[in-house]
Design goal:
Layout (H helix, E strand, L loop, with lengths): L1 H10 L1 E2 L14 E2 L2 H6 L9 H7 L4 H6 L15 H8 L3 H12 L4
Antiparallel strand pairs: 1-2
Length: 106
C-alpha cells in the first residue's frame, strides 16, 4: 500500500489548474497506468453519493475540497466530474485524493 500511496502522490497531476482551461479547472488527468488499473472501480463518472457510500473514508476528502455533498439531494445524481465542475474545483486533484484514500480501504 505504501507503494500505491507514493504513486498517487507523485503520479497524479493537473496539467493546468487555470479555471479558464475547462469547467472543472484542469485540462486532463495524468494518472500512471498502474493507478488507472488498480482503481478502475473509482471513476469520475460515479455519483458522489455512490463514492461516499462505497468508501465512507472519502467523506472528509470531499468536504476538504469544499464540496458539502454529504446529505445533499443532488449527490445522488451529480457525478464526481459534474460536482467538480459545479464547485469550480480541479477534478484531477479531487480524484487523486480520493484514490489515495481508498487505496487503504477493502
Amino acid at each position: 500500500m505504501e507503494e500505491m500511496s507514493h504513486l498517487v502522490r507523485k503520479g497524479a497531476t493537473c496539467l493546468r489548474s487555470s479555471k479558464e482551461s475547462s469547467p472543472g479547472g484542469c485540462d486532463s488527468l495524468s494518472l500512471p497506468p498502474e493507478i488507472k488499473t488498480m482503481h478502475a472501480k473509482l471513476e469520475p463518472d460515479m455519483t458522489i453519493d455512490a463514492i461516499m457510500r462505497r468508501w465512507p473514508s472519502t467523506i472528509p476528502v470531499v468536504i476538504g475540497h469544499g464540496m458539502l455533498c454529504v446529505g445533499c439531494p443532488i449527490g445522488r445524481f451529480h457525478t464526481l466530474r459534474e460536482a467538480c465542475q459545479a464547485h469550480e474545483i480541479c477534478e484531477e486533484e479531487v480524484l487523486r485524493d480520493l484514490v489515495e484514500k481508498v487505496s487503504g480501504d477493502p
